[in-house]
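Hi there, hope your week has been kind to you so far. No rush at all, and the record is pasted right below.
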Amino acid sequence: MDYLIYLTIQSGIFIILAVSLNLINGICGQFSLGHAGFWAVGAYVGAAYSVFFALPVPDFVNLLIGCGLGFSAAAIAGLAIGVPCLRLRGDYLAIATLGFGEIIRIIIMNMDSVGGPRGFTGIPAWSNFFWVYLFVAITIIFVVNLLRGTHGRAIISIREDEIAAESMGIYTFKYKVLAFVIGAGFAGVAGVLFAHTTQFIHPNSFNFMWSVIILLMIILGGLGSVTGSVVGAIILSLLPEVLRFFGETVSEWRMVIYSVLLICLMLWRPSGIFGKHELDIKKLFGMKKGDA
């Protein structure tokens, strides 16, 4: 039971990461590969606060303060990276953000105050199912409401056609930076929750491959779909663990099976499970607009 709860919590953390990256890659149309770097910033800032600077207040208050600090630190890192990099496009932006993500990891690796290459230990277990899924709800509600507003429409217009958006008077650079900063901030919150769940973090826990895995989650679910981000995060966080339970032979080949299933799905549904669409509860239950 404890293992299932842990997997559920991990899924929630990946939902936050996937939704926040989808704001940058799927909704704004920028190609970022540095999300694990922002995750690391949030994790280490939150862990450093809890180990070295925690206030004599209830644990949940310290966790909320840690999440606020993690969000702020990751958002500032996103701003520092976004301002020079978001003038680039496509593959060039991906390479630049990948480089910055690795720079963050190497800097942390050389900081003895937070464990350096030994990892950071002694982090209190403040996070639990309730707090993780509270922040999952906050992340989803924030992003959905952002997209329904003026700023969200401007961000979506950049994805559809940046030149046309500029010709309509939209300051595209500002909105690209806005999406990047918000996405980085929520990745920082996921980092704080991750650190206070595992109670141990290491720089290699935030390497380039994790940025790729989070990217795969949103591609699987559908670039531009919040619902797809949630479904993709759940599938890709649970699938490798589920394959462990099908005997030793399957367990040994689980990463190969995992990769083959992804390839098959991409061939069958290249736009992802949801594409750019969202789950409509009313349509699901056959309700019309006029129904109660």
Remarks:
- The two ends are 39 Å apart (CA to CA).
